Amino acid sequence: MIEFAGAKVRVEGGRTILDATATLRERRVSVIGANGSGKSTLLRLINGLLVPSAGSVSVFGRDTRTAGRAVRRAVGFVFTDPLSQLVMPTGREDVELSLRTRKLPPAERRRQAGDVLRRFGVDHLADRSIYDLSGGERQILALAVVLAVEPRILVADEPTTLLDLRNDARVRALIAGLEQQVVFTTHNLDFALEADRTLVVDAGAVVFDGAPADAVAHYRALVGGPVHGP
Amino acid sequence: MRGFGSTMGLYEPGHGFLYRTPLPVKAAGSLACAGVVLAWRSPSVTGVALLLTLAVLMVGAHRSPARILRMLLPAAPVLVILALYQVWLQGWAAAFGVVGGIIACLLAARALTLTTPVQDILDGVVRLAGPFRVLGAQPERFALALSVMLRSIPYLAGLFVDVRDAAKARGLDRDPRVAVTPLVIGAVAYAHRTGEALAARGLGDHDDGSGDDDIDGVDIDGGDGDIDGGGAGSGDGSRVRT
Description:
The complex is a heterodimer of chains A (230) and B (242). Chain A is an alpha/beta fold and 230 residues long. Chain A is built from nine helices and ten strands. Chain B has two domains: 1-116, no CATH class; 118-205, no CATH class. The interface between A and B is large, with 70 and 60 residues. Strand 10 (205-210) of chain A pairs antiparallel with strand 1 (238-239) of chain B.
């Protein structure tokens, strides 16, 4: 459960770029809105990458300001560009880097890394340079790297934006199959409709919060696009 | 962004006795090579060191001379400039002693990184830094710093080539400011993104060993109903006052 209680983010000069109050309990929550509307800021509040200037954000009752480490352990974060996410030269090494936080013996860490890569169907890419992988392969690897430590919640910031149709479908299927609660931003309204609940963010405020179909219609009306159809 | 991971040379799976040699032995060998070359700056010692490192790579890692030469390509511009400078300043013999020594050290270090998975190197660094725990240091952070460094070198090399190509495409490759400014900005942006990625993954967080880092007591599959399984959203489906 994620709770935004009057969470405000202010930038230099005191301007408020986000002001949110919401409690997210659903298994799949999508966040939609125009570029620069505050979607990513909202997501960054969830795992403590950003702490609110006022109000609070809590995850399973733990405040991101005072229990940042615990919250980061519970919340995995996937960036839009997997190259920003992957720190090591190969996928296997990156998964092992994630597992280092568990302080396992090297042999056990290696075995678990292999298991994770197999589970996500990328074990055949494990020893290839991350630069030699396609965008879709990198994004699935980035998901594997984050999910290797089994976070309770996955937060994904436009995880399909850089992908072609085939890889878009792969990543969406993978996310759909996760047992974790997933909160994601997207510009793909079909993807947004797959959620159980959708927030529409505009100019730093949650301007609509409800069923995905209604939220998409609201968003289309907001930006002046066609109201009918995805 | 193109990658230079393989060119700059990290671990590559393979066969040979080097792959089976324990990390401390390889590290000691690499250090010994550097020590000998620095202590006896003579062309003959350099020649022996070069031959030995070449032989070790060929026999111990099954690498051909052509592949070994390719490993030196990223450092070639600096080595050529250094060689020319040494020839001009001190003559051929001294130039061979200095540049050949550097090449021997590079190959010795490459023999280690080529045949040792990065995670094994990081484990070695953690063990090496273990005694510093008594001073409050966290050995895992040493390893994390090393891993970030290993990742940054090929990234920045790739960024340099991209920036140079972009300048060339616009006919601005003769203006050093055009090459350097985006490189510096790109490097700072990369450092920021890497820091954010590490923070997002909880890597580098201080471990106080208190065990107060877990969020427990919540049944993700329903249970007390903390996470709803589906259906319509629980938002009120209307405009939200913020």
